[in-house]
Write a structure and sequence with these properties.
The protein has 7 helices and 10 strands. By secondary structure, it is of the alpha+beta class. The strands form 3 sheets. It has a 4-stranded antiparallel β-sheet with strand order 1-3-10-4. Strands 2-5-8-9 form a 4-stranded mixed β-sheet. Strands 6-7 form a two-stranded antiparallel sheet. Helix 2 packs parallel to helix 6, helix 5 crosses helix 6 and helix 6 packs antiparallel against helix 7. The protein has a single domain, classed as Phenylalanyl-tRNA Synthetase, Chain B, domain 3 (3-Layer(bba) Sandwich), CATH 3.50.40. 37% of the residues lie in helices and 19% in strands.
Length: 210
Amino acid sequence: MELALSEGWVEPELAEDFPELGLVHAPIQTRPRRSPREVKRRLHVLADRYTGAKVIHMRQDSIPWAYRVFSRQVGIDPDMDRTPVEAIALERLRHGGLKSENIVDDALTLAIADTGVPVIALDADKLIGEPGLRQARSGEELAGVRPLFQRQLVVADEARPVALVLGEVGHDAGVTGATERMLLCALRVKGVPPIAVEEALWIAAETLYT
């Protein structure tokens, strides 16, 4: 399997404030579907690894900690709005397992849980130009989700915000049953090795091609 990794743009003001901030993305030529048995098995194995003690100590691990620090730096309280890896861990504790949803959601869950790196999937055909990171502007909204605060950190294409950083994907850019091409995007912050970001994208892509 070949995976073409590209570095997204970062708004100059953000790049100055956070020199190691980045959005790494990779195109995937596949369609959503039910997860095969092998992927469901991997979710089951993953759920068994998430004991209460592991979840409690998770935030002290270097990569989850890096995203918690970044969250606070950009005005997000990670104890209220959990980082993606912590949200997965808490979901497992609440429900006693990790339920298979579909191949896309399951691929993201496996990638995030294995690496701690946040990964989202966008419909590549709904994007206008290359995605990157910037601050929201006055009056903008995330389609179908919520209005945005000025200077809120977003993933955007050349026309509009398409996702919140460490949050939801806009309804006009997310993957649907009609999606034929996806773009996987992983957030890189200070303290997270580039190899971990690449690994997260590889895990998600490999799962999608299972």
